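Issue 218. Parser rejects a valid record. Input:
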Amino acid sequence: MRIHCKVVAIAVGFGVFLLLYFFGWNGGADEPPPKEVGGDRELEEVGRSPPSLLSDYVGSDAVAKLARKSATGVGQRVGRKEGKTTGREGSVNAKSKFLGNVIRPVTRRRRPEEVMHLAVVACGKRLDETLTMLKSALLFSLKKIKFHIFAEDSLAPQFEERLNQWPQSVSARFQYSIYPISFSVGDAEEWKKLFKPCAAQRLFLPIILKDVDSLLYVDTDVLFLRPMDDIWMFLKSFNESQLAAMAPEHEVPKIGWYSRFARHPFYGVTGVNSGVMLMNLTRIRRTLFKSSLIAGGLLWEDLLHPLHQKYRNHITWGDQDLLNIIFHYNPENLYVFPCQWNYRPDHCMYGSNCKEAEQEGVSILHGNRGVYHDDKQPAFKVVYDAIHNFPFEDNMFQSLFYPIQNKFLDTVNTLCGRIPQVFLKQIEKAMKTVFEANVVRHVRPRK
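Output the parser choked on:
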């Protein structure tokens, strides 16, 4: 009988222990569970203590606090050595330091996708040329692009209509904003007629696009022959003082325009060309620029108008001359990239003088002097026509590369046409890169 009583007592005691254990472990059951943020979740093991023994060490109240904390701090990681979070909440106290030895859910957060910013200014009869430039940027680039299009009022609805006609597979890779032509200081009509129609607008991009950190500006007569991603990477090559990047106006001083004819200060030995200009707008906005105007420095917005007033009778190329004057007095602020990133007829019409393009191919083609629309430099026109006529979503090798390659045979009687590999090398390489990025990496190996 005594044995039976002992058995019953043990069973009752064990049952009470189980009830207490159950209610103790679930003391925080009325607390909401940790919410999932974003997509997939994973369990990160921090330390070695099994979760079933946690209440034995810290009690049910601490477990409830841990549940509440994880509900508000999903995705933060606890440091293995010092028990410090790498998220926003900083270091934890001594009590919760011990709580780091637990398996808890974390969120696998994706980094926000980087978007490149591309600006262009279009006035007059530049609609088709500008759209061809934008098209070339999309054909070869990998990241998404935000287009900042500054256009005359008559062109704005045409841009919107044409861009909205591009296929969905293409439009998913870009965004765009259209802005009116505007100048924040000085006489707007005078700025507008400074050189080519509206070209001076580029000087005001840091002032207008206050929410944009970095930007690539290009003229309408520019074509990308490789991913824009590659020139965008130059931003990471800037040192602490550099805030813009341009290519030299010429490679040979004795035939360069600035070195022979300029009546104003200019950058370096041959000056720089502003048709392709990479800018850190944040740095430009906060920098004090030296000049010949006053002893101290001036902010970008305060510098433009007085600089134009002083040199207005001595400049030929408008806004480009003003940029050369600015960087003449502030050479430490400029990063100079090779001529292949702004390849113009001057680089081949007098004989090939861009060594980087000969070695690596043209990266960005700049068809100034109107060579896309006449027969003076047919090698440039061949590339423009091929990109302009290329149907989106067609086979790039068959409908873009091969037509350019074949039509170059008709240009061999010109100095620029004698070096087709300079024009074709990066196009072929870029097409392979796009193919690998869009097709090959999505093909999963069979198990």
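Fixed in the parser; the record now loads. The longest helix spans residues 2-25.
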